[in-house]
Design brief:
- This protein is mainly beta.
- Helices cover about 10% and strands about 40% of the residues.
- Strands 1, 2, 5, 6, 7, 8, 9, 10, 11, 12, 13, 14 and 15 form a 13-stranded mixed sheet that branches. A two-stranded parallel ribbon has the order 3-4.
- Strand 10 (about 125-135) and strand 11 (about 140-145) form a beta hairpin.
- The longest helix is centred in the middle third of the chain and has 12 residues, at about 90-105.
- It is globular and about 55 Å long.
- The two termini are about 25 Å apart.
- About 40% of the residues are buried.
- The model is unreliable at about 260-280 (pLDDT under 50).
Length: about 280
Amino acid sequence: MSDFSWIPFAPKVRVLNAHPAGLLAVEKPEGVLAHPNQDDKGKDEVALISGNYSFEEEAFHVRDGQGGIKRVYLLNRLDSPTSGILLLSLDAALAVAVKELFAKAKVSKKYIALVKGRGLKSPRGTWQDVLIKSKGPGGGVRSSKSTGTGAPAISLYQWERAANGELPLSLLKLEPRTGRTHQLRVQSAMHGHPILGDRTYGDFDFNKSMGTVRGFKRLFLHSHSTDLELDWRGEKLAFKSVSPIPQEFIDALGGPDGGNAAALKKPKPAGTQVSPRLRIRL
């Protein structure tokens, strides 16, 4: 893997995978912005990369250490509280091509979440809803269920395991097929299984009893894998990255073992500096 030390990543951001064409997958910690906000909201939060960010280009302008400026294009987004995989490009044309794949829902994205409840009515299935966007109390954007017009939201879900003991928690694998604002968070709550630590759409009493009291302060939603393929300059470019399940998830579940659980496997390191943690079956 090439040396990307010239990119001033935020603390704990790490490169998971890189393609010679200039495509990068990085792991974003929770609490880090994908890019700076245009207003004062989130001004105390740290962005993925230190440097000027162009909203028009959707790119960070970064000094390359040789007297020049390079652009690092941001290809997808994650909410600040959500951890996991973000894709970047060092090539403008490749950035356009990959963003077109995202727009056409041709990028496979899988998430994991810890949710309220030890089981679901069906261990796997599809959530299909209609969502609308509105302004929240603090001026931010919120999504909610619509009984009329709105945008379709489709997500696949699969129950993986319950927490150890009698903890009322389950680990889910989620795969959004559309890209609505806060889609997984909203749909999980709508279908009776709010995500642990969700301060906007979650069960606040549940968050307090299961999270705050036990010392967990984060949103338990993590972008676990991203997989894409495209024709690039006459060749097939296939790119996949996996971000291991965060240790906080394992701790909240009461450890790696659980009754009636799907197999959790130790991952192979994806790129450099990725500590071997447990990961769910893909």
